[in-house]
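Bench notes, afternoon.
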Amino acid sequence: MKCYYSIESNELCFIELFSSKYVIDDKVVVYYNEVMHDDDFFNRIYVKELDINSINEAIDKVRSRGIIPFIYSIHKNLNHRCGGCNYNYYDELATLIYRGPDRRNTIESIRVDVVSCIDELDGWIDVFTTSFSIRNYIDEVSKRIITAYRGARLRLGLALEDGIPVGCSALLVHDNTAGLYCLGVLKEHRRRGIATALISHAIDYALSQGYTLIVQTYKRDRLESLYSKSDFKHIYSKYIYLPDS
């Protein structure tokens, strides 16, 4: 159980780098970004305990700000468990933990650098917003990531091919856990081992520091097999719902 709370704490700490927080009560908390209003990772109604009144209050809160109300809960079949509600299943966010051996990165053809100063952030931001198809939010991402980089325990990885940035990742260290986020590869450079190189780089760092390493992935992206090849194991999921419009 302690592991679960540490992982959730790490994830929410990362989300708060991009999102504002509004507490409904001790059962439901809202995270929102009014600029990135349709982003399903940085906007969420986080359900700690099932309470239909609290959830509906949160829905009204985010809708009033023009934000899509993505409901996150560890409970599957939310309608059955929360009587009187009518929410539509949207997706599943799987959480995986590294359970492999101590090892070193053996992918020599791809170089992974750590962003070491503010001046190097432009390349990371460009790859991140392009690979995740959020170029329309580049100004917001730039503002948030620069602030986070200056003030958080955030380690940004940049994969290069022939000296050109082609992949990105972010590691947030919190509560003795390293969370791997923002893993992206430019479309024209995929299936070349770049994501695996970034994952290996994160594993090497986490092991060297004695951190537990976790990663999350949406079911729709079908990337669990990629992580399982790098010795990540599924430990739990959160289920995402949308209310009827």
